[in-house]
Amino acid sequence: MRLLIYVVPIVLALYALIDCARNEAPTTSKLPKAAWLVLILVIPVFGPLAWFLVSRFVDPSSIRPEPRSRPTWPQARPVRAPDDDPEFLWRLEQQSRRARRERQRQESELPEDPEEQSEP
Known about the structure:
- By secondary structure, this protein is mainly alpha-helical.
- 58% of the residues lie in helices and 3% in strands.
- It folds into two domains: 2-59; 82-109.
- The chain has five helices and two strands; from the N terminus they run αββαααα.
- It has a two-stranded antiparallel sheet with strand order 1-2.
- The termini are far apart.
């Protein structure tokens, strides 16, 4: 039990020091971070307790709203008209060639003389 009298203030001070050092705000409750570190070290129990009380409650006037930025969207390909898009034109040309070949193949398979079709 006697040990707790010495250990608790040391652990409390260490935790408050680490918490104060990791705090992102340069000032808390109108005191700079360096002043808080000194208070935590110099005043054994009340310094860390004061830090915990003050750092947990944020003054609403000290909070500045973050400027709103436009959302970032993934960069997409610019929209083009079909006749300006080389990929579209290439696919159109390929379809046209396939259709022409298919037509030629079907024409070559058909007999040219209509009388040849009607063989008895």
